[in-house]
């Protein structure tokens, strides 16, 4: 039984990378970044037990000409269009920082528990953000609706899935209902057909792979849906701050 908590702060000093041909091209001093580790709800779980159910974002099936990648995704736009909507933006024109929480486009953190539906959580968070930008309303949408109902393709509830396929389901389904109407239970459930849609999207697009400049342009303009490999033990005890490795 845990009767208290233990914390430690880990700091690393890393050089900030610059992009040639932009205002980020000049050398600068390294930046000190720290993260906080402490006993969390996952701290007493073995690493294998934690990773097995939670690290369940599936790898996309690669086909000839497919633009699906296990990288970042963003909304809205033409589904898997041939161009990148922000490619003509200048890096010099981007803000120095961007925090979509400060813009009111991010709902409170949701805990997926021991259910491998990170794909659903990521897709829903991005959808919530873009709906806020388009309508001015921040609506907490239902991850559980994706877990229960988006099961006839690549996505398989707590057993894993892909954000791309979640976006396709949202479009085909006409949107998602509010979380309050379809609460999260951290387990596979029976699909409640006919749930009233609270918000929807018209499309999605992939950020070009391995292109930090493109990622900077996209995140400066809207919230992103991302997948992170959280298999390192550090994630099990993460409490706050910036992780650099």
TrEMBL record:
Belongs to the peptidase C1 family. It comes from Aegilops tauschii subsp. strangulata. CDD domains: Peptidase_C1A. GO terms for molecular function: cysteine-type peptidase activity. PROSITE patterns: THIOL_PROTEASE_CYS (PS00139). The lineage of its organism: Eukaryota, Viridiplantae, Streptophyta, Embryophyta, Tracheophyta. InterPro entries: Papain-like_cys_pep_sf, Pept_cys_AS, Peptidase_C1A, Peptidase_C1A_C, Peptidase_C1A_papain-like. Residues 94-245 form the Peptidase C1A papain C-terminal domain. GO terms for biological process: proteolysis. Keywords: Disulfide bond, Signal. Residues 48-71 are annotated as: Disordered. This is Peptidase C1A papain C-terminal domain-containing protein.
């Amino acid at each position: 039984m845990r009767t208290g908590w233990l914390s430690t702060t880990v700091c690393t000093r890393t050089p900030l990378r610059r992009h040639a041909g932009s205002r980020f091209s000049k050398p600068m001093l390294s930046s000190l970044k720290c993260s906080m580790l402490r006993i969390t709800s996952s701290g007493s779980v073995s690493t294998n037990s934690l990773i097995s159910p939670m690290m369940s974002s599936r790898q996309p099936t690669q086909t000839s000409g497919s633009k699906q990648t296990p990288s970042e995704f963003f909304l809205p736009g033409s589904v898997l269009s041939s161009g990148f909507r922000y490619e003509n933006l200048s890096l010099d024109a981007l803000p120095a920082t961007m925090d979509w929480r400060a813009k009111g486009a991010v709902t409170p953190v949701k805990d997926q528990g021991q259910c491998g539906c990170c794909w659903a959580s990521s897709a829903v968070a991005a959808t919530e953000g873009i709906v806020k930008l388009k309508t001015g309303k921040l609506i907490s949408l239902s991850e559980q609706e994706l877990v229960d109902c988006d099961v006839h393709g690549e996505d398989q509830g707590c057993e894993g899935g892909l954000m791309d396929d979640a976006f396709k389901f949202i479009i085909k389904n006409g949107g998602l209902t509010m979380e309050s109407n379809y609460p999260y239970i951290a387990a596979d459930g029976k699909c409640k057909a006919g749930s009233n849609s609270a918000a929807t999207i018209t499309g999605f697009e992939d950020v070009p792979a391995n292109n930090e400049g493109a990622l900077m342009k996209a995140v400066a303009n809207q919230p992103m849906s991302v997948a992170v490999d959280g298999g390192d033990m550090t994630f099990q005890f993460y409490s706050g701050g910036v992780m650099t490795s």
